[in-house]
Structure formats: C-alpha cells, structure tokens
Amino acid sequence: MMNGLKLGLLLLALLVAVTISEWRELEWIVYSGLALLFVAWVWSRASLIGVGFQRTLDADRVFAGTDVREQFRLTNRSHIPKTWVAVTDRSTLPGHAFVRSTSIGRRSATCWEVSTQAHQRGRYRLGPVELQSGDPFGLFTNRSQVELSHELLVYPRLVPLPKGERFGAELSGATRVAPGRSAGSPVIRSLRQYVVGDPVNRIAWRSSARHGLLLIKELEPDPVSDEWILLDLVPQHGRERRATELAVSLGASFAIERLDAARDVGLLVNRCIPAIVDADAGDRQRLRILETLAVVEPYGDADPSSLISRFGARFSRSTNVVVVSTGSGRRHVQSLRHLLQRGVPVLAIAVGVTENADDGWTEVERLGVEVIRYSASAEPLDGIPARRHVPGTVTA
Q1: Residue 187 near residue 220 (C-beta atoms within 8 A)
Q2: In whole angstroms, what is the distance from residue 135 CA to residue 38 CA?
Q3: Is the dihedral of CA 342, 329, 301, 256 positive or negative?
Q4: Cα 339 from chain centroid?
Q5: What pLDDT does residue 391 have?
Q6: Side-chain half-sphere of 155: how many Cα atoms within 13 Å?
Q7: Residue 287 CA to its chain's centroid (Å)
Q8: Is 371 helix (H, G, I), strand (E, B) or coil?
Q9: What is the largest CA-CA distance in the chain?
C-alpha cells in the first residue's frame, strides 16, 4: 500500500509540474503511471478472490515433548493464477507460528505440513491465519483473515517413576490386576448387548439364546484400594519454575500408572482455589486428571493441612496417599502425622530441594514416611538408592 501511495504522490507532482511548465513530452509518462496504478489496484482487490484455505490437525491433545503436526492446503478456484500468496499463522503455541509465501496456478492447490514440538504443557490456540496477496508490481496488498482455529491441549510430560517396592494398602480379599485389564468379581451386575472388542468369556450364552442376540455379562468390580495424589505447588519464578513442572509431571505419571492398574485415582491440588478431581477409574478419569494438570498453576500460598483436613474423611487404611510438593516439608508434618495415626499409607516426593539443605523433610521422615527427593533437574539427590534413578530432565 505504501508503494502505491508513493507512486501516486510522485505522479501527482509530475502532473502539477507538467501543467505549470506545459512540458507536454512528460504527459504520456504521467498517464501511463496512472493507468498502471489503476490496474495494480484492481489486480490487488481481485488477488484473493477464489482463494481457499484449510488446516487439519492430527491430534488436539498431546503430551509435552511430542510433535504437533498440522496439514495446510491453499487452493485457487479461479481461472487466474495467483503470483504470490503469503500465509501468516497466529497460533499461540510457541514455535508454531510461521509465515509462508507461495504461488498457485489456476484451479490448483498447494499443500504443506508443519511439525512443532510441544515443549510446555498448557492450553493453546492454533490459528487463525492471515492471507495476504497483491499485484505483481508490489504496489498494493490485500489481506483477509481466515477465522479457522483449533484448540490444542498439551498434557504434562510423563517421566519415569521411582522403582522398587511400592507402598500400598489392600482391602481384604482384593487382588491386583494386570495393567489394561479391569477388575471384576464373579457377581453379575447386569447384561448388555455385545459390542466389538468384548471378551468372549463374558458372553451370557443362555440369555443370548433366549433373546436372540448376543449379551455380555457386566460384573461387579472387585474392591481394591484407591489412590489419592496431593499436589502441593508453591509459587516459583525463573529457573525454579522447573520444579513446578517436574512436580506436575510426577503427579501425572503416577496417576497414569495407577489408572493402568485399574485403580481408582483422585487428585487434590493445593492452591488458594484448590483443584479437585474425585477418585474414579477408567479412560474418562484419565482425561479429567490430565486436563486438570495441563493447565494447573500455583496460586497463592495455601496451607496443605486445611485441604487434607477437608478431605481427610475420605482417606482410610485402604487408601494410598502420595504427596508431591515443591515446598518445605514442615508444611506437611502436622497433617501427615494425623493421617499416619489413622493408619493411612503415605509416600512423599519432595521436588526442587537442594542437597544438604534444611528443607524440613527430615521431620517428615521421622514420622515414618518414606521421602523421595528430587532436584529441579529430575535428578535424585545423594542417599537415594541407584534403583530409583530417574533419567532425563524436565524443562519449563
């Protein structure tokens, strides 16, 4: 647009000079320039007519550390070729926004793919895009906003958990099940119609013959202990924020592991406004916990004792409680002592502590609680057995 304005002002000055000096030899230059200016303006107005844009996202939910892939398609439905079209992406995902310029022949299309690694958990917007084109002389430009966008949710990065003997509480008669299998007792709860993928040994053959269609037996779930994760996030800034990201990753990894073992898992996030996910099992619970942890951030400096006292009635000898904290262990001494007196099994994971520092977790260990310490770089500190080494780092 600025080039066209500059040329217009120049032609106007020449026209005034020609009129005053009666220099007729320059009149054809002025008129030719004005004709060029008019043709360029009309061309730019029509440069985006018949241009279409499509974007396709492979998955709108990914884990941090994986790639986000999008396919773009730019089409020209008109019989006039487009000499250049610039596509500017306005996505909020870091590193995913781009500018690409291409030409499109008449009634043709061009496609390309963009792959970006999602480094940070959170909720992002992919799109919209701005299309820009103009005349081949570069005098005028035409812009069009395509309000086509997707919401992308980046789950926390999953990290390996400490190895070794797993603490735990079991109900009388309860049994552990292999990951990926649901726990069930011999008690039949109801019957439903067979769907593809149901196990053959659950088919109720007599009822199926009587009703003329395949029916599946729904069994009462076998009682097993449930798991609760208490995520205590203390506001941090700069490099210390890596501890927050590691704590969230450990909480998500533990929840996924226990859900894969067909356990009921609940989540408590200690903040001034706590985030709460009631204990449940299955794929829907997996989504609830991951979606909560994808966007959760520290808010205020709330005392975890008040949150535990609020939900303490739900904890019993058949409940496993995992405390993942980025704060001092002194914040948890009183509440954990109360849980231990009631026989509730507790495991504590301290994140972001420094070696030989008075972090207060020694007082928690004196209560009889096993404490696993991690630095913000996901490395266990001295004194932790080698079998509990967690390789890799988690960056903010």
Answers
A1: yes
A2: 11
A3: negative
A4: 34
A5: 29
A6: 20
A7: 11
A8: strand
A9: 109
Q: Which of 346, 383, 138 is nearest to 228 (CA)?
A: 346
Bridge-partner residues for 319, per DSSP?
226
Q: Are 259 and 270 in contact (CB under 8 A)?
A: no
Distance CA(113)–CA(94), nearest Å, equals 17
pLDDT of res. 385: 33
Residue 299 sits at the vertex; the CA angle it makes with 370 and 393, to the nearest 5 degrees, is 50
Read off the tokens for 18: 């020609």
What's the Cα-to-Cα distance from 327 to each of 143, 304, 353, 358, 377, rounded to whole Å?
51, 10, 8, 12, 16
The contacts of residue 315 (CB under 8 Å, 6+ apart) are: 228, 321, 339, 342, 344
Closest CA to 364 of 382, 354, 378, 350: 350
- Between CA 276 and CA 288, with CA 247 as vertex, the angle to 5 degrees is 35
Among 43, 34, 112, smallest CA distance to 82 is for 43
| Element at 324 (helix H, strand E) | strand 319-325
Helices (H), 107-162: none
Residues in a beta bridge with 275: 269
8 A C-beta contact, residue 362 and residue 355:
no
Residue type, 313: A
Among 146, 130, 127, smallest CA distance to 87 is for 130
Please state the pTM of the whole predicted model: 0.76
Task: Work out the average pLDDT over 314-331.
Answer: 90
State both tokens at 7.
């040329």
Query: pLDDT by residue (tens digit) across 60-78?
Result: 999 999 999 999 999 999 9
Query: pLDDT tens for residues 378-394?
Result: 555 443 333 232 323 33
> What backbone torsions phi and psi does residue 85 show, to the nearest 5 degrees?
-140, 125
